[in-house]
Amino acid sequence: MIRIQNIYYMLSYAFQVLNEQGYKQVATEEFDNVAELCAAILIKGVSLQIKRGLGKEYVLQTESLSALRGKIDISASVKEQSMLKKQLVCNYDEFSINSYMNRIIRTTMDTLVRSSISKDRKKQLRKLLIYFSEVEPLSRESINWKLQFNKNNQTYQMLISICYLILKGLLQTTSDGSTKLMDFLDEQRMCRLYEKFILEYYRKEHPEIKASASQIPWDTDDGYREMLPVMQSDIMLKQGDKTLVIDAKYYSHTTQKQYDVNTLHSGNLYQIFTYVKNLDTDNTGNVSGMLLYAKTDELVLPNNNYKMGGNSISVKTLDLDCDFSEIRRQLDEIVRSCFGFE
To answer: Each residue of 133-158: pLDDT tens digit?
Structure first.
């Protein structure tokens, strides 16, 4: 289990904008489920964006016009017989708020208004939707989430991420074909948030350590790596000659059961061992690995330390169903035990 308030803290590390003044009211509010939390963040974020001004972009328009504008579409003009009306079909760019990102936000707000969130939040969303009257909604299934962010639209990055969590992680199709919002994010989306939270926590709270999500090169004898798969770490912490590679895992079951015996997921253990051995090419023993599972309500939870081929490999669980100060203590303890910081 995970406390709803802790999901807000996780999001605030993943998206630093949530620490700014405008979101303080959301931080102090109590929420019954993740859907209400995400809706509240979206409402506050969209309200702030409206005050700044909704982003605009050039959008291609196609229209039959009496006066020439942009480029003439000859084939469309012939097909629609617009010349009989003394018009031509023209394609032209218009600087409009009907941008793709605004359309994603409009689609998400429309979905929330039809969902089971509180009446008060639905009322707030309907007020905001007035500002999106010229924005066309999208089909949820066809949204392209591979968007480019720059200094002109960076204020949209968190908003689009929240929209993604709502539309991809909280929506569930029922047996009658309708959709409803789940109380908790699905496992896949929670896993990604869990990874990003831990990485960004160490980046912010422990500047004395270099925290990254670095790729690990294969330690081949002749340097030939053609067609070898990419080894991408979740979190890599470095300080001096010491390195800790953390693989963050968010599963409903942290162990697997074989013949009534609980064992670690073999694939996870093979993976972290491979990361460590390919990093510690000189066999110094200064590279360590850790599988960091989010704690579940299972009776058997891993908390083990192993010495493998001269390197330390540990398996730990992080309790997310507690006060955030305790989560902070657990994460700080990992740094202290590995790098010797107080």
So the answer is: 999 999 988 999 999 998 888 899 99
The pair of three-digit structure tokens given for residue 301, joined into one six-digit string: 């939870």
Q: What is the pLDDT of residues 172-183, one digit of tens each?
A: 766 666 667 777
Closest CA to 292 of 194, 177, 150, 154: 194
Beta strands in the chain (DSSP E): 57-65, 71-72, 88-96, 171-173, 179-181, 210-212, 215-216, 231-232, 235-239, 242-249, 255-258, 261-264, 287-294, 304-308, 311-318
Q: At what angle do helices 34-52 and 119-129 cross, to 10 degrees?
A: 30
Name the residue ranges covered by the structural domains of the chain. 4-56+98-185, 63-92, 189-339
At which residue do the structure tokens 């991420």 appear?
161
Domain 189-339 falls in which CATH fold? Trna Endonuclease; Chain: A, domain 1 (3.40.1350)
Structure tokens at 298: 């299972």
**DSSP 3-state percent helix, strand, coil across the chain (nearest 5):** 45, 20, 35
